[in-house]
Design a protein that fits this description.
3 helices, globular
């Protein structure tokens, strides 16, 4: 699918972004809101015991939903990452970055990391939601 690219904006007055974009100006297209995805397998159980393993599976699930709507990773304009252990997320940044690039490529949407006390499934360590605009 081709079309106009989303524009990543970096505000020079802010700290340079690493692993996220300050802002993304979405190209025109279909707006897709992606429900929260965890590392849930087809049987409904949470798979993976580490933050990195669960991030990888949650990312795969988010992309499966996005592709079902006709989108690709490059169409993401915003993402929220909910984690039950912010220090564990920080400690895993290098490996999480590797997973990000393998799943999403080198482009980052506008993002937020939000620490929560618990997710719907108590075994889940991470949940991803997103917004995409498909040209």
């Amino acid at each position: 699918m081709t079309g106009p690219e989303h524009e990543t904006v970096t505000a020079p007055e802010l700290t340079p972004p690493s692993g996220y974009a300050h802002a993304v100006v979405a190209a025109s297209g279909r707006l897709v809101h992606l429900s929260g995805q965890t590392a849930q397998g087809r049987d409904g159980s949470i798979q993976g015991g580490t933050m990195v393993e669960q991030f990888d599976l949650a990312a795969a699930n988010l992309l499966t939903a996005l592709r079902a709507a006709g989108g690709e990773p490059r169409h993401l304009v915003a993402m929220q990452v909910f984690v039950t252990d912010v220090p564990a997320y920080r400690a895993s940044l290098k490996r999480l970055g590797e997973v990000w690039r393998s799943r999403f490529g080198s482009r980052y949407p506008a993002m937020a990391l939000i620490g929560v006390s618990e997710l719907f499934d108590p075994a889940a360590l991470i949940e991803l939601t997103g917004v995409a605009v498909i040209p």
